[in-house]
Design a protein that fits this description.
Elements lengths: L3 E6 L11 H4 L4 H15 L2 E6 L3 H10 L7 E5 L8 H10 L3 E5 L21 E4 L4 H12 L1
Parallel strand pairs: 1-2, 1-3, 3-4, 4-5
Helix pairs in contact: 2-5, 3-4
The structure holds ligand CA2.
Amino acid sequence: MAQRILVLHGPNLNLLGTREPQVYGRRTLAQIDAGLVELGTRLGVTIETFHSNHEGVLIDRIQSARTDGTEFVVINAGAYTHTSVAIRDALSGVALPCVEVHLSNVHQREAFRHHSYLSDIAVGVICGLGEFGYEAAVRFAAGR
Ligand code: CA2
C-alpha cells in the first residue's frame, strides 16, 4: 500500500470555484484538498497537496518527492499537461508511480487538449469525473 501520496495541482487550478463552474465544478481548491486529506485519514494514508502556477516550482516539488517518502503521485498538471516535456521528465526521473487526473473530459474539448505528455508514463488517467477523479486516484493509490 502507498502510505504517502502527493497530490499536485498545476496552473490556474487555484481559480476553482470562482469561475467556469459548468466546466470545473463549484468547489474551491482548498475544499477539494481538505476533502482529500480527510479521505486519507479514513484510509490510513498521508495525503499532501501542493499547488503551483509555475512549471519550475512543480518540477522542484516532483524532484523532492524522490527522497521525502512519497510513494505515489496524483497529478493534475492543468495546461502543462499539453505542453510540458519538463514535467514529464521530472516524473520519469523520480520513477514514482502516478495517476493523471483532469476534472473535465479533455477529449470532449479543443483538439490541443487531446494530447498529454504525461499519459503514457502514468499508471492510469482519469478525466471527466470532476473532483471525484482525485478521490478515485487516491483510493487507487492507497490500495495499490
Ligand atoms: O480538466 C482539467 O482538470 C484540466 O487539467 C484543467 C486545465 C486545462 O488546461 C486542462 O486542459 C484540463 C485548466 C485549469 C483551469 O482551471 C480553472 C478553474 C476555474 C476557472 C478557470 C480556470
